[in-house]
Design brief:
By secondary structure, the chain is mainly beta. The chain is built from one helix and seven strands; from the N terminus they run E-E-E-E-H-E-E-E. A hairpin with a 5-residue loop joins strand 3 (32-37) and strand 4. The chain is globular and about 35 Å long.
């Protein structure tokens, strides 16, 4: 089953807390979703189009980019994300949604 923009839910866990959001309607195959924590403003989801995702440098803010490998099994696989602010300096696992 493929992810459906505007309907599929993206779930992740950071510092022991589970977070989720709906995949943005504007997302297209090949895009990268970037999740940023902006302190008092909360979480923000950006879409980086196609090849721009691979060439974009890391921003100075709290940013996590995780590429889901082609052999990932939706609902079973997890992807290791690098440490970010608020994670206690530890990498964390992001589950691949069952409906991805």
């Amino acid at each position: 089953m493929e992810a459906e923009p505007g309907r599929s839910e993206v779930r992740f866990e950071i510092a022991g807390q589970r977070k989720s959001f709906t995949l943005p309607k504007e997302a297209l195959p090949g895009d990268t979703i970037r999740i940023l924590f902006e302190g008092p403003q909360g979480w923000r989801c950006d879409i980086i189009r196609g090849s721009a995702a691979r060439s974009r440098a890391k921003s100075a803010g709290t940013t996590v980019q995780v590429l889901v490998p082609g052999d990932a099994v939706p609902g079973h696989s997890q992807v290791l994300a690098p440490p970010v602010s608020g994670s206690g300096g530890k990498a964390f696992w992001v589950p691949v949604p069952a409906d991805a």
